[in-house]
Amino acid sequence: MLISETFYSVQGEGSLVGVPSVFVRTSGCNLRCTWCDTPYASWKPEGTEMSMQEIMAIVQREPTRFVVVTGGEPMVAKGMPELLARLRAAGKHITIETAGTIAPEGVACDLASISPKLAHSTPSEEKAGKAWAEKHERTRLQPEVLRAWCTAYDYQLKFVVATEADVAEVRAVVDSIGVPVPPEKVLLMPEGITQEALRARQTWLVDVCKRTGWRYSPRLHIDLFGNKRGT
Predict the structure, then answer these.
(1) Is 25 annotated as a binding residue?
(2) What pTM did the predictor assign?
(3) 76: domain CATH number?
């Protein structure tokens, strides 16, 4: 399996924020978000081929039971069902961080951390090329796939929000899933990879959450470490 990086840190986003976790980041993605903060796992995938045994050895040397499988898009990684089965057999709590564009098909998972991509994620043709810009726009939202994730596992829906205009789009995406979604499972995160950018959006985003009942999610890893790999 092509692995971009592995590291031990605290979860920076979502309902398990602050929990010490081993992160396994696969390399490769079926989207090209214009603001992607891990381009080394998506736009220009890089990494090392690792065996299941090597990955599991890294996971098991740390004292936590929490493992976050992320990307890129981990669901495009060859061998992912086997890795998840091994993590489950080892008694690990498994979070899968996914854009929700590929159906889960029975993979082992304790928390599906789903991040549907809003319209502002689509790259320009100048940046990504015509083929990728069109593929991203065509692929980024798959309501039936989101529904499959939300009905199969405990889940959270994480949205990267750049402007107040995105709020109506978040509502439309949630409604399109077609099953009741408790408001506390909808998490709004400010877009940005610097503390300054996050602070510029956090106040009004908290106000949105207070109006809607949705949950505000910080990006703790940026607050603690900045936009650095391995954190």
Answers:
(1) yes
(2) 0.93
(3) 3.20.20.70
